[in-house]
């Protein structure tokens, strides 16, 4: 009996690599078609053929730059959000243990919820990969199990126009 193996999930890196490969192949095929066309059609001015290849090259390079810029934006957001979370982490643990002495614990929780809302906002805009968002959402759901944190989140979730729709995605009750 042969066991069926599940297909491995495709990583984001694989998708990006495939996307770049497909774009490269399409560009090369279009360029080759234009060169061929210029060889078989004596009425096609060679400068027009070069112009068409140049236009295709411009679109190709533009796509590559766009994809690289999107990755850079995601990396910048990821780094900034993790740095902000790191600054809140000790206070959140102290609130969870009931040992917080650094001022108003509700303010710390609201700062955390604002961070979560910003993460969600950029996820909905396609600037944060789904795998990263899932990990962050799991962390949010874990923190929302802490009664002191959940109480503030429930109160804040009642404000329907706040937090960019975070509480429709991450349930607090």
Brief characterization of the structure:
The chain has 173 residues and is an all-alpha fold. It has one domain (12-169).
Pick out its properties.
rod-shaped; 173 residues; mainly alpha; 6 helices; 75% helix
Which shape, going by the Cα principal axes?
Answer: rod-shaped
Instruction: Write down the overall mean pLDDT.
Output: 89
Proportion of strand residues: under 5%
**Stretches where pLDDT falls below 50 for ≥5 residues?**
1-8
Would you kindly provide a written description of the structure presented here, covering whatever features stand out?
The protein has helices at 12-40, 46-97, 105-124, 130-143, 147-157, 166-169. It has 173 residues and is an all-alpha fold. The protein has one domain.
Question: Layout of helices and strands, plus pairs?
Answer:
Blueprint: H1 12-40, H2 46-97, H3 105-124, H4 130-143, H5 147-157, H6 166-169
Helix pairs in contact: 1-2, 2-3, 3-4, 3-5
């Amino acid at each position: 009996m042969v066991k069926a193996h599940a297909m491995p999930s495709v990583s984001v890196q694989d998708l990006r690599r495939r996307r770049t490969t497909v774009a490269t192949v399409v560009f090369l095929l279009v360029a080759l078609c234009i060169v061929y066309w210029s060889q078989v059609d004596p009425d096609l001015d060679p400068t027009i053929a070069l112009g068409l290849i140049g236009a295709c090259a411009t679109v190709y390079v533009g796509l590559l730059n766009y994809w690289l810029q999107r990755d850079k934006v995601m990396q910048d957001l990821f780094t900034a959000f993790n740095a902000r979370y790191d600054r809140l982490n000790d206070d959140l643990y102290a609130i969870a243990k009931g040992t917080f002495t650094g001022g108003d614990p509700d303010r710390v929780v609201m700062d955390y919820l604002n961070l979560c809302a910003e993460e969600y906002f950029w996820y909905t805009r396609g600037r944060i990969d789904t795998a990263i968002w899932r990990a962050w959402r799991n962390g949010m759901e874990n923190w929302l199990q802490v009664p002191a944190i959940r109480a503030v989140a429930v109160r804040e979730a009642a404000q329907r126009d706040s937090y960019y729709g975070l509480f429709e995605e991450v349930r607090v009750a």
